[in-house]
Every structure is written in structure tokens, then in C-alpha cells.
Amino acid sequence: MILARAAVAVFLVVNLVAVHVLFLFGRPPAYNLIGAAGRLLGLYLAFALAVQVLLISRLPLLDRSFGMDRLTRWHRRTGLTVFWLALLHPAWVIVGFARAGRDPVPATALTLAKQWPALLGMIAVALIVLVVALSIRAARRRLSYEAWHAVHLLLYAVLVLGLIHQYVEGTAFTTNLATKVYWWGLWAFVLGALLANRVIVPLVRNSRHRLRVAAVVPESDDVVSVHVTGRDLERLGARAGQFFLWRFPGHNRWWQVNPFSLSAAPNGRSLRLTAKAVGGTTAGLRDLPVGSRVFAEGPYGAFTLDRRARTATLLIAGGIGVTPIRSLLEDPRIGDDVIVLYRVRGGSDAVLLGELRNLAAARGARLHLLTGRTGPGNQPFHPDRLRAMVPDITDRDVYVCGPAALTEAVLAGLRRLKVPSRQVHAELFRLAG
């Protein structure tokens, strides 16, 4: 983790310094101060886009060192940065041109829109605004996961339009051979990471392992487990607690992809995912034909015992978030000093409970099923309740997975109890493909 943090810091600092060097020595000089500010904002925007691409490229260094939850936060913050820069960059450039030519701002914007490089940039800005508008919480709740994911594919169009715009309009990158090599070398690295980790590696792995559906097992009225087999699965290097991005060709469209955790520790012979019907893809898993093809991208995530700092462990699950918790409990490395807290509204909602009980009994772990509606008399993750159930909580690594509200309540309680941050591991699954 320390080396990864240092590598990320060096990458950001070196490239930000280079961006300012490009701005200071770029030719031709800006026509006025406003235009110069617009040019600098454009450089910031281009670099922010490069960072955003790296965040979704599934670089092993980032994924294994920081995990999905932290990368999700960075992705959202970078996305908001891209959004504001995408608005401010053209606005300052247009105002700068208008001041230089002493023309009205609307007339200047219309004139620039008639030039195809500027028009491509404006289209990219419109697409960014659309994606961000559909990603805010109020809009996101109205979209299915599949629709939200499809909308985000528009960002690849933004990337193409942005690169064309940079190539034609980016005078700061063409000052000399060194600036050209640096800038397009940066983008070659970024695009190479994206293609290698999101396209080439998954294609090679799926060709090698030939994944197929071995069994489909209903766990409850709205939860189903899918067992997947293939060749040489031990070479995947999957760990308990990790997830894959799953596609089912022939059963769902190619762009319909969902992140599902392994609900059983990988054993080199099969993989198992367990999902709740919350969208079109997950609802259809019950009807998957045995023998149908599976395309899996992964394994991903740092929600594993590799990052454990203590020998004692507390596992906290909420709802269907029990799946990676159940796989962690099966991991032979977890030891025998384990406490499991499983939060559900009612006993009928506790999927995989029988398996948890069997695993807990085999390991000598303590399992607490926490039921009922959360209210004044039922606050299972209040710091006092947590300490009562787990007196030595500060001496344990804590793994929590569940709905956002539950996870945030647990994390708030752990902070108040002063559990060291290096011992806290959370998975929210807020970032998909």
C-alpha cells in the first residue's frame, strides 16, 4: 500500500508539473488573459480525463492496493472535476475570443461551433453533462443498473472526441518533439492500460478457461446462485472476497454486465456467484441454461485476507452483502478467532444462513443474526452495541459489506470506537465496469 501510494503521488505530481511546463512554453501565446486561463483549463481537463481512464482501466497496482471502494471515491471526485473543467474550459475560451475580436459571446460561440474541431469538443462537453446528470443520486435511483451502465459507455465516445480535439487544437503539445513524445506517450500508456486490462487480458483468460454454467440454484424467492466451471481455474488467482464482472452471452446483451462477488471461496474447480433480483440481468439469472457460456472479467478487488493486519477478525454483512463475507469465512487463512454479524430485516431474508452456520461451527466462530427494523430501540451498529457484542473490536480486522446506509453506519461506529483505519475493509460496489 505504501509503495502504491508513493507511485500514485509521483505520477500525479510529475504530470501536473509537465502540464504547467506545456502551458508556460506553449506556442502561439494566448490572445489575452482569459484565453490563457481557458487554455490552462483545457490542459487540466485533458489530464483529468487521462486519470479517469486509468481509474477504470483495472490496473492491477491500483485494484489490489486500494480496492474498489477507494477507487470509487476517486472516480466520483475525478468525474466531478472533469464535469466542471468541461464547462469552464470552453466558456473561458469563448469569452477570450469574444474579447479579442470585440464580438458578442453568443456570436463567437456560434462561429466556433461551425469549425469541426471545436464542434467535436462541444459535443463531448454535452455528453459529459448528460452522463453526470444521469449519475446524480435522484436520477440514478430511477435507472436500472443496466441502463446506468449503458449510459456510461458514452464516456468512450467522449474519449474519442476529446482525443481528436486535442490532436487538432492542442498547440501546447506541438511545441517541439519532446512535448509531442511526452503527451502522446502519456495517452499511449493510458489507452494501453485500458485495452490491455479491459479487453486483451479478459479475452485471453476467457479463451483459456472456457467458463460454463454448471448449475443454477435458487436460494430464496429472489436470490439465486450460479455455479460456474471451466479449465485450469486455479490459474485465475482468485481470492475469497473478490468479485468478477459477469456477462452471459446469448442470454443477455453484451453491454449488460454486473459485478458479483464470489459467494464461495475459489477451489480451483468452480466459481460461485449469488445474486439478488434487482434488475433485468439479475432477475434473469434464474433462467440461465446449464452449459451456457459465461464471460467473466476479473478477479478484482482488495476485499481479501491479504490486507489483514490482525489475526482476529470481525465480519459484518448486510443483506446480499453476505456473499463476500461468506467466502471469507470459508478461506482457510482466516483462523479460528472470528465473529460474524449478519444484519437482515427478518430471518427469511438471511440467504446462505445455513452455510454460514455450518462454516462458523466448523471454525469455532461466533455468528450473530441481527434482525428487525432499525429504530430507537434497535441500533445494532451503534458504537455501544458494537462494543457489547465485540469487546475486543479494536484488536480485530473488520470486513463490512452491505447496503450503503448500513456500511456507512458501521464505518461511523468504528471511527467512534477508534478502530485503526488500516484494520477496516469495506466494499460498497458503487463502481461497476
Automatic annotation (TrEMBL):
<dbReference type="InterPro" id="IPR013130">
    <property type="entry name" value="Fe3_Rdtase_TM_dom"/>
</dbReference>
<dbReference type="GO" id="GO:0016020">
    <property type="term" value="C:membrane"/>
</dbReference>
<keyword id="KW-0001">2Fe-2S</keyword>
<dbReference type="Pfam" id="PF01794">
    <property type="entry name" value="Ferric_reduct"/>
</dbReference>
<feature type="transmembrane region" description="Helical">
    <location>
        <begin position="118"/>
        <end position="136"/>
    </location>
</feature>
<dbReference type="InterPro" id="IPR039261">
    <property type="entry name" value="FNR_nucleotide-bd"/>
</dbReference>
<dbReference type="GO" id="GO:0016491">
    <property type="term" value="F:oxidoreductase activity"/>
</dbReference>
<feature type="transmembrane region" description="Helical">
    <location>
        <begin position="148"/>
        <end position="168"/>
    </location>
</feature>
<dbReference type="InterPro" id="IPR017927">
    <property type="entry name" value="FAD-bd_FR_type"/>
</dbReference>
<dbReference type="InterPro" id="IPR013112">
    <property type="entry name" value="FAD-bd_8"/>
</dbReference>
<protein>
    <submittedName>
        <fullName>Putative ferric reductase</fullName>
    </submittedName>
</protein>
<keyword id="KW-1133">Transmembrane helix</keyword>
<keyword id="KW-0274">FAD</keyword>
<keyword id="KW-0285">Flavoprotein</keyword>
<dbReference type="InterPro" id="IPR017938">
    <property type="entry name" value="Riboflavin_synthase-like_b-brl"/>
</dbReference>
<dbReference type="Pfam" id="PF00175">
    <property type="entry name" value="NAD_binding_1"/>
</dbReference>
<feature type="transmembrane region" description="Helical">
    <location>
        <begin position="7"/>
        <end position="25"/>
    </location>
</feature>
<keyword id="KW-0472">Membrane</keyword>
<keyword id="KW-0812">Transmembrane</keyword>
<dbReference type="GO" id="GO:0046872">
    <property type="term" value="F:metal ion binding"/>
</dbReference>
<feature type="transmembrane region" description="Helical">
    <location>
        <begin position="37"/>
        <end position="57"/>
    </location>
</feature>
<dbReference type="GO" id="GO:0051537">
    <property type="term" value="F:2 iron, 2 sulfur cluster binding"/>
</dbReference>
<dbReference type="InterPro" id="IPR050415">
    <property type="entry name" value="MRET"/>
</dbReference>
<keyword id="KW-0408">Iron</keyword>
<feature type="transmembrane region" description="Helical">
    <location>
        <begin position="180"/>
        <end position="201"/>
    </location>
</feature>
<feature type="domain" description="FAD-binding FR-type">
    <location>
        <begin position="206"/>
        <end position="306"/>
    </location>
</feature>
<dbReference type="GO" id="GO:0050660">
    <property type="term" value="F:flavin adenine dinucleotide binding"/>
</dbReference>
<dbReference type="Pfam" id="PF08022">
    <property type="entry name" value="FAD_binding_8"/>
</dbReference>
<dbReference type="InterPro" id="IPR001433">
    <property type="entry name" value="OxRdtase_FAD/NAD-bd"/>
</dbReference>
<keyword id="KW-0411">Iron-sulfur</keyword>
<feature type="transmembrane region" description="Helical">
    <location>
        <begin position="78"/>
        <end position="98"/>
    </location>
</feature>
<keyword id="KW-0560">Oxidoreductase</keyword>
<keyword id="KW-0479">Metal-binding</keyword>
